[in-house]
Amino acid sequence: MKHETLIHKKMDSTFERIELDHDPLPLCIEIHPTDFCNQGCEYCFGAGKHRKGIETNQRQKYMSLTDYRTLFSEMSTYGINNLSISGGGEPFLSQDIDGIYDLAFDHNLRVRTVTNGNVLNSSTMERVLHTQEIRFSIDSTDPNTYSKIRKVNPAMLQKTINNIGKLVEARNIGGYPLEIGATCIIGYENAGQIENFADLVLGHLGIDHVVYKYDAYGIIKPDSKDEKHVDTQLKRVKEVFGNKIDSRLDQGTFSTDQPCVESYFKSVLNPYGELFSCCLGAQPGETNGIKYGDIKAEIKSGNSNPLTTIWKKTRTARDAMRKKVDCTDCNFTDRETNAKYVVFQNDFKVKGT
After folding, report:
1. The CATH number of the domain where 93 resides is what?
2. How many Å apart are CA 252 and CA 29, to the nearest integer?
3. Alpha-carbon distance 340 to 171, whole Å?
4. I need a labelling partner for 278 at 20 to 30 A (CA). Which of 88, 148, 239, 265 fits?
5. Residue ending a domain, choose from 250, 276, 292
6. Which residue range is the domain that position 92 belongs to?
7. Separation between Cα atoms, residue 207 and residue 138, nearest integer Å
8. Does residue 249 contact residue 183 with C-beta atoms inside 8 Å?
9. 3 and 117 part of one domain
């Protein structure tokens, strides 16, 4: 929530710069330290096609800490202060995760992390406490439902709950400004558990916010009968928890003829250093989004400003995306940004600015 709020505060000014043909650099860079995951959620980007297991031979192909140092230095130089650590895969399975945090701190970057929370050791937790936000992707507080959705042993839910509890306690004792949230992707398996979810993570564990949404691909979306029950439950949790509830269930459908400006707000790096126009495009096996270039290859060639070099080379692609995209799917957050851009664009033309 804090992550999106900070970026969206600059929405109108960014839209104006786009309309004036300034081609601004992205406000945030998202990195995927690994594309391995210990879970197999059907709805996940790439329809659950992430590699499962632990990093092995693939790791040598990943961005190194030296590569990240070069990238973060360039981000700092050009005022790109927001870093999102996500996936891809599960970021806390990356052997470099602590080093990535340390480099981000060295360059005064604001850090947001998205994780399933199954694995969170003490050294990583200490670093997370010094970031701005962490969001746990959980979906259910019932072990059996959790297991069905995420294709893991039911006991893994308790591991995540324990990790959240420890993090909340450490945050509160130390007085850290870390915002802790959770995401619940609502589908046919958990459509009746919205209240239980909020009661546990907000009421019992004491986190700061919950995001309820459907999966971007519509793979596990509940039927219309369940949707009415979902609305009833959401009304109740909003009455109890107020603005700690963020419902994204009413966001519009995706249209292939819409413009896209999401890359100005957040461009995304996969583990191999390839830069994409959005988080969807950076996922393993994904056909949506646009690949801008290879950050890792630019660094290997001796370029100390790989991001801005690639950005200058790919302006034509962004100009084309502002008119129309050929994607078949889009992340909900990106849809909302693009819908607001259309409104701003029309107002901008009417005013004759």
Report:
1. 3.20.20
2. 25
3. 35
4. 148
5. 250
6. 1-11+25-31+45-121+251-353
7. 13
8. no
9. yes
| Residue pair 306/70 in contact by the 8 Å Cβ criterion | yes
The verdict on 166 and 178 lying in the same domain is yes
The tally of domains found in the chain comes to 2
Could you report the per-residue pLDDT of 129-145, keeping only the tens digit for each? 999 999 999 999 999 99
Q: What is the pLDDT of residue 48?
A: 46
- SS3 sequence of the chain: CHHHHHHHCCHHHHHHHHHCCCCCCCCEEEECCCCEECCCCCCCCCCCCCEECCCCHHHHHCCCHHHHHHHHHHHHHCCCCEEEECCCCCHHHCCCHHHHHHHHHHCCCEEEEEECCCCCCHHHHHHHCCCCEEEEECCCCCHHHHHHHHCCCCHHHHHHHHHHHHHHHHHHHHCCCCEEEEEEECCCCCCCCHHHHHHHHHHHCCCCEEEEECCCCCCCCCCHHHHHHHHHHHHHHHHHHHHHEEECCCCCCCCCCCCCCHHHCEEEECCCCEEECCCCCCCCCCCCCCEEEEHHHHHHCCCCCHHHHHHHHCHHHHHHHCCCCCCCCCCHHHHHHHHHHHHHHHHHHHHCC
Parts of the chain with a pLDDT under 50: 47-48, 54
pLDDT of residue 112: 97
Angstrom distance (rounded) from CA 271 to CA 275: 10
80 and 224 inside one domain: no
Among residues 224, 250, 276, the one where a domain terminates is 250
pLDDT value of position 169: 98
